[in-house]
Specification:
Number of helices: 12
CATH superfamily of the largest domain: Alanine racemase
Largest sheet: 9 strands, mixed
CATH architecture of the largest domain: Alpha-Beta Barrel
Radius of gyration: 23 Å
Number of strands: 21
Bound molecules: pyridoxal-5'-phosphate
Oligomer: single chain
Shape: globular
Helix content: 25-40%
CATH topology of the largest domain: TIM Barrel
Distance between the termini: 46 Å
Number of domains: 2
Amino acid sequence: MNITRENGVMTLHGHSLIDIKNKYGTPLFVYDEALIRNQCRRFHTALQQSGLNYTISYASKAFTSIQLFKLMQEENMGLDVVSEGELFTALTAQFNPGRIHFHGNNKTKREIQYAIEAGVEYFVIDALDEIERINDIANQQGKSVKAVLRVNPGVEAHTHEFIQTGQEDSKFGLSINHGLALQGIQQIIASSNIEFHGIHFHIGSQIFESTGTIETIQIVIQWLKEHQIDIKVLNIGGGFSIRYTSDDISYPIEDGIKSITETLIATCESHDYPIPEISLEPGRSIVGEAGMTLYEVGTIKSIPGINKYISIDGGMSDHIRTALYNAQYEVELVDREEHELETVTVAGKLCESGDIIARNISLPQSIKSGDTLCVKSTGAYHYSMASNYNQMLKPAVVFVSDKGVRKVIKRQSLDHLIANEIL
Ligand SMILES: Cc1ncc(COP(=O)(O)O)c(C=O)c1O
């Protein structure tokens, strides 16, 4: 992210984060628009260089927003949605439905109906009973739909166990090893109103390197060849890592995509198998590092010899990943640069002991109430996971570029909180 300091104050594309805070309030999600666009372009360039036919769908669960979807369309990205709400938001953004894929391990009948009416490009089928459900609804609408089958390759990605999805015991996909995936394909092919389009897998998230994906491509192509099943598309999901702290690596997009695409070509050639189009669904790696959260410091509590808690004006209602995964973050003082540091814990203001932003991190000793903290790499799975717990308001979101600062989502109002209440 293009952050520098001017007179000690953190700035993004020349805009002071203090000015931004004063104008839009806190908590506030601030995105570097140029970085989002750049990530899309890096994936495009890497895939173009492979010479393969490809598509990239942004995984909208990472951060769903109308203005972001417009930006994604400008960057020639498709979209992956998993619910009626995500699809509705995409359609409201006038996203081309022919470039939207509908996911989910339990698509409701209503969602299936809505997605077919909208004309999504394809469904990613996740279970055997879903095949009949989709076929029936398509039949009722007098339509034929395309589907890829999500398979479970039995590969364990090296990541946090809660965000691993490719191992055998998973609620996602159908297992290759237990014959369910083959049964699924046969069932789709036999369906009157579904056209079998290809295979999907997603082995996990925050994956630093390509080994697991490469292994999975080899397993899947060999398995398809063995069963003489041709596909038009191989969708390898998302999961490309970002840097939260110095312990992480931003996924090396150029090298990683090169080895993945080279593996696909070589594996197909060695099995004399037609090379399919490759499809990717990055979410976190598109928006994660481009976003940060600004908070204002409130209460500071020192427990001698034990800990110092710096409480901020948000918490697990806009930042759940620390409580959920014990995720680690870097936090910086925005207002000034100081080198006298101490170990502190940054806590939220919600009524849970687990409502912590970052534990035992180094921050300036001089931090006082009214100062501004910036939590980095919060662009993915923060706003989209935000809740109204403790009747907290969902924050506003701004995009910053060299053209200026623009609000893309307003802060919720107190009226929002009771909008559905029966008075
Ligand atoms: C099927 C599928 N595709 C794509 C993604 C996006 O993953 P990431 O944001 O880690 O790139 C996910 C994340 O859960 C997913 O389940």
